[in-house]
Amino acid sequence: MEREWKNIESNPPKESGRYWCHVQHLNDLGTSHFQWNCYFDKEENRWSVDKLNDGEKPIYWTELLDSPQQIH
User: Closest Cα to residue 43, out of 10, 68, 6, 13?
Assistant: First the structure.
């Protein structure tokens, strides 16, 4: 499956669940970005990111990769 980044506001997921997010961080020094695991609640149309600080918000999302297959 090929993954692509989707805009959180204009293209939310169709189901609740965990996703990989691109997060914008804004502080006194400027704007930076990082990637983090996040959760989308479809019923509340709300994103949550563990340990989200002031000035941080998810702006893009994509599907998580499948778990690796265990090698014997």
Answer: 13
- Is pLDDT of 29 > 90? no
Amino acid type, 8? I
The set of residues, in sequence order, having a beta carbon less than 8 Å from that of 12 and lying 6+ positions away, is: 6, 40, 42, 45, 61
C-alpha closest to that of 49 among 57, 38, 59: 38
Phi, psi values for residue 52, rounded to 5°: -75, 130
Q: Is the pTM of this model over 0.70?
A: yes
Confidence class for position 10, pLDDT limits 50, 70, 90: very high
